[in-house]
Amino acid sequence: MIRDKEHHSENQKKLIAKYGFYRHLVVYLGTSGILWYINYRTPGKSAWLIWPILVWAVILFIHYLWVHSPQSYLSHYPSPTHKYEHSKWD
Predict the structure, then answer these.
(1) pTM score > 0.70 for this model?
(2) How far apart, in whole angstroms, are the C-alpha atoms of residue 22 and residue 62?
(3) What does the alpha-carbon distance between residue 20 and residue 35 come to, in Å, rounded to a whole number?
(4) How far apart are CA 47 and CA 38, in angstroms?
């Protein structure tokens, strides 16, 4: 029973991490679109937006690797519901 609870908790962590990554991706795409629009509407058409988009893309890629890696980096962090779970001594 405890083993099932640990397995469920691990799956829950993975789902929450994947949701966080996809939310990060949507925010990145939306913000990048807004930055492209601002750059298009700005006179002079300088390429100032390349650097924030590029740096954010690298950070997003690292986030992707962290979430989708075969190694479980997530197992080192407590469950998001750990404060609601009972200890083995209860």
Answers:
(1) no
(2) 13
(3) 22
(4) 11
Gap between the Cα atoms of 13 and 89, Å rounded: 23
The CA distances from residue 33 to 30, 38, 40, 45, 77, in Å, are 5, 9, 10, 15, 34
Cα 14 to Cα 8: distance, rounded to the nearest angstrom = 10
The DSSP symbol for 43 reads: T
Per-residue pLDDT of the chain (90 residues; tens, 9 = 90+): 455 556 568 788 888 989 999 999 999 999 999 999 988 888 877 778 899 999 999 999 999 999 988 765 555 555 555 555 555 555
Backbone angles phi, psi at 66, to 5 degrees: -65, -40
